[in-house]
Amino acid sequence: MAAPEAVVPTVGGPERRGEPYVLTGEPRAWLKALWAVGDTLVITKRNLLAWTRVPAYIVFTVVQPVMFTLLFRYVFGGAIHVPVPGGYVNFLIPGVIGQTAGFASFSTAIGLARDLQTGGVDRIKSMPTARSAFLAGRLVADTLRLFVTIVVMVGVGYGVGFRFSGGAGGAIGMVLLATLFGLAVCSVSALIGLAVKDEESVQAFGLIWVFPLTFVSAAFVPIASMPSWLQGFARHQPFTVVINALRILALGNKVEVAVGQSLGSALWQSFAWALGALIVFVPLATRAYKKA
Amino acid sequence: MIIEVEGLRKSFGTVEALRGVDFSVDEGKVLGLLGPNGAGKTTAVRILTTLLPPDGGRATVAGLDVARHPGAVRRVIGLAGQATAISPHLTGFENLEMAGRLYHLGKQLARRRADELLARFDLSDAAGRQARTYSGGMLRRLDLAASLIGLPRVLFLDEPTTGLDPRSRVGMWAIIRELVAGGTTLLLTTQYLDEADELAHDIVVIDHGQVIASGTPEQLKDRVGGDVVEFSVNDRSKLASALEAVSSLGEGEPFGDAESGRVQVHAGGRGSAVLVEAVRSLDAAGVAVTGMALRRPSLDDVFMSLTGHAAAEVPAGDGWRGDGSRKRKRGAV
Question: Does B61 touch chain A (CB under 8 A)?
Fold first, then answer.
């Protein structure tokens, strides 16, 4: 026969039982919330430390977008004519930043799948760590990384002739909108990583969808230069809408005509896509994590 | 009873991983959960550590129902798994500090415990190195240290030495014994019978999701029926005649392994008499043997007699008990 179950009192803090302390009951909501924030920061730190220690990760996240910038600036740029003041480099930098926001999501999916495979998730789930912290810590770390990458790219852009012409507010707005959009794409990738669960499969096909979205967009070439059957998709898909907004924020309202969309329209559509993705995919990814 | 499991059930689709499992563990004791791959050991551990909800039955750890109060259970347990849960790019110290923070120990206490555990597991020199540079044995020790950071009352070790070289294995055993001496209750799963024999106070044998035997290692060995007479047949083709020659001597049918030519006869309490008779009848049958010996039964023999297959082997009706000619595959035990 089972012994009667232990009484589970509600406690507000650690109950000391000599040196080793053990919580015997369910903590109060405020304490749980505090722990969830603390746990998220611990896991964020873990992910950022790993990032700074693996040269390949830094190459992938920072060097690759810089290479794209240089390639398009100096190799393809001469052949691409855009009606934007300052020439192609001013068109390119917001586009590459939009693409980078999409590519940043790779590490989210790959990192989560790897953690599932190695047993890191099981360990953390058997600890009193907040259930939300693992995913949140991954998303926060990836978003901070993306932010750093974007700032680096703005610097590289300045080196190759890019100039903001939409004021300081526009410049800051561009960086923040790109970061928010990156977070939204990362939440989609998080679900893929947690659902596929296998690092190699994620690398092989879990992220293919990002490529057409970034290249069949206004990131590198004006949409008018694409075949007409592609233009409809290219003009209305989320990456184009966001990149339009990034361009207008960076270069000022005068490029609205060249971009083909007003700032207001591009902004509300960008927010709708980003928040919509977060509202749909964060709960789905959280559920996948709990079941994994 | 610090762990109590009653009628525990779990299915994955149509596969019944656990079909009504009962066992219990006293505080401060080591329970060895023994069984082949796929027997249900890991499923049982995943339920007890709140990673999986049970489909039926009841399980409590430290008096807390794992299904109803998973959060409270997580504060009193530690889990070290088969796969290492260590972040390879963090140092040994950082891994332990992180685990401590995730146990909500606070920064100071987490760091102090990390240092203590590194010293205790002989990892102080490697504390500042990234874990990816560690050897397999060091990683297991670090993994075990991480599971102890919250000073758990109950520790779950899921196949702690699988894949380790023999020296590291013995090292892990010494560490585990020391932990138990310090009063930690331990639930250990293993496919290795010698490991359970070395470490466990009580053993529960699971096969196909059911408990097929339980007791102390000595009790289980007694169930096999005393001593075992063992020998090898030089000429494998004579295996059948050797089995026939000794078939009436022991208790039950003798067991022959076609690959190694090894034969085992369970001799009950009449060990030496059976040994002498076996020598006579083998001689009369003209079968040459080597390595004739009388020994105490091992848990290996227990597993064999309970399940009809070796511990680390996939059961597929491959067993051979001296009455057929099919080759039996022998797993690494």
Answer: no
